Amino acid sequence: MNNELLKQYSELELAFTALEDERTALRGKIVWEFIANKVEKEETAYGSFTLGRRSNYTYTDKIKLLEDKVKIAKHKEVEKGLATEKVTEYLVYKPHAGETETTA
Predict the structure, then answer these.
(1) What pLDDT score does 103 carry?
(2) What does the mean pLDDT of the chain come to?
């Protein structure tokens, strides 16, 4: 295995994580500004920014029971070989504990 490729990936992953943290913080500030200023959409030279909304629901015990029944039925289909399995291969990367961008 080419260790240089793995090192490059590790370094990119650390940089991506830092950028993602920065983007998440910035996104929170922008959302707060949109809400505080009652803005739904902002067209800029950089692109279009829109305040999105997503609803979450809490269901009754009746629905939770039905979901449990479906989960059990799915498990039974897997056990009986009736369910079709699709396997997707992908890379999993975990940095060593305490690793920072400078130690990668």
Answers:
(1) 46
(2) 91
